[in-house]
Amino acid sequence: MFSGLIRTFGGAVAALAITVTASAAQDGKTSLFKVVTVKDEIVIGLSADELTALGGSDASAVAHALAQKGDLTAWQYNVHRGPNGDLQMTPSARIGLLAHASLRVEPYSSPYAVSPHP
Question: Which has more confidence, 71 or 118?
Answer without folding.
Answer: 71
